[in-house]
Amino acid sequence: MNKIKNSTKTFIWRVTTTHTISYFFAGIFALLVLRYDKSFGSGALSFMRSTESPWVAAGMGLQIVRGIILSLFLLPFKEVFINTKKGWVKFWFLLFGLGYLITISPAIGSFEGIIYTNIPMEFHLLGIPEIILYMILFATLMWGWYKKPNKIFNILSMVFLSLIILMSVMGVLDSLGLI
Predict the structure, then answer these.
(1) What is the pTM of this model?
(2) C-alpha–C-alpha distance, residues 26 and 45, integer Å
(3) Helix/strand/coil for 85
(4) Which of 120, 130, 153, 169 is the most exposed place for a label (fewest CB within 10 A)?
């Protein structure tokens, strides 16, 4: 019983941290390479918050909550992803399919978004590299952590998570003009 609880806690920790770290690096890629700062908050994407918003700055740190929720939904499928041949590929396809292609809201870039919004196709295509990068990082980091569970992964994940939280807090304070 204790091993099962520990295994569940380990899974929740790993999903939460790998999700948050992957989301952070994909977000930095999107900001610097895809130039989200030029697209968000104006034109066809005027409904999106500007990258200077305190909410956007808080978003990275808030991914921890999202990671915990995600881990709880993925928990029943843990064995399929971890202990089957090419489990990380199955995990990636599930993420890509449910998280991107067939979302049930008209999100930018989703099937529903393309059909039901007036947003130009260029904006639907803009986020695809970020999404694919996030999903590849998330799936491979999770798989790698389970295949070679070294203590260094725990240490690095704690360091990265701490830095992400610190940067998120600093970003919020900066966007509010407090620093």
Answers:
(1) 0.88
(2) 19
(3) coil
(4) 120
The one-letter amino acid code at 43 reads G
Q: What is the largest CA-CA distance in the chain?
A: 55
CA distance 28 to 22: 10
Give residue-wise pLDDT tens across range 2-27. Answer: 555 569 999 999 999 999 999 999 99
Q: Are 37 and 148 a contacting pair, CB within 8 Å? A: no
Domain span at residue 99 reads: 2-175
**Per mean pLDDT, which range of 3-7, 131-135, 136-140 is the poorest?**
3-7
Please state, in angstroms and rounded to a whole number, the distance separating the CA atoms of residues 29 and 43: 22
Residue found under tokens 């491979």 = 140
**Residue 15 backbone phi and psi in degrees, to 5:** -65, -45
- Number of structural domains the chain divides into: 1
Tokens describing residue 120:
């130009």
Token pair in block for residue 11: 């899974």
Of 67, 19, 28, which Cα lies nearest the Cα of 51? 28
